[in-house]
Design brief:
123 residues, binds heme C, mainly alpha
Length: 123
């Protein structure tokens, strides 16, 4: 009888140890923007400034997934400020970041003559 109780306690303790262990490991860690390193970006003037500013709010992937002309990047910076509260970047600082973005994230498929043609557009 005593034996049986001891045995049950052993089982109970082992079970709780396993459960605790599993919950301590937890789910896979979520992505955090700081997992990205500035060194992962292509080198060039403005790299630190661009990375520093843009990853204040989101991963750099959100930026590097895009490819745009300088004008579109300029609009994007304005949009980040007016819509999302990014501090206004002006003058030489803005040029530096725009130069970096334009040099390293240009439009993916350069607009050919006529650019993108919507196949569903009425002929
Ligand atoms: C103050 C916060 C903030 C800063 C700083 C910021 N962004 Fe953003 N950005 C956002 C938010 C919020 C979104 C998500 C927008 C959405 O889902 O509509 C976003 C989305 C984007 C997108 C994706 C747009 C799309 O169509 O999916 C791009 C590109 C972008 N940001 C570029 C930049 C660049 C380049 C910089 C640095 C110069 C920057 N952002 C800095 C807040 C910020």
């Amino acid at each position: 009888m005593v034996n049986r109780i001891v045995w049950l306690m052993v089982i109970a303790l082992t079970t709780s140890a396993i459960t605790t262990n599993v919950s301590a490991q937890g789910p896979a860690p979520a992505f955090a923007p700081r997992d990205e390193q500035v060194e992962d970006l292509p080198e060039g003037p403005g790299r630190d400034e661009t990375f520093g500013m843009c990853t204040g709010c989101h991963g750099y992937k959100l930026v590097s997934n895009q490819g745009m002309t300088r004008d579109k990047w300029d609009e994007t910076l304005t949009w980040m400020s007016t819509r999302h509260g990014m501090p206004e970047i002006e003058g030489a600082d803005r040029d530096l970041i725009l130069d970096y973005l334009t040099a390293h994230h240009p439009p993916k498929a350069p607009a050919r003559s006529g650019g993108f043609k919507n196949p569903f557009a009425p002929q």
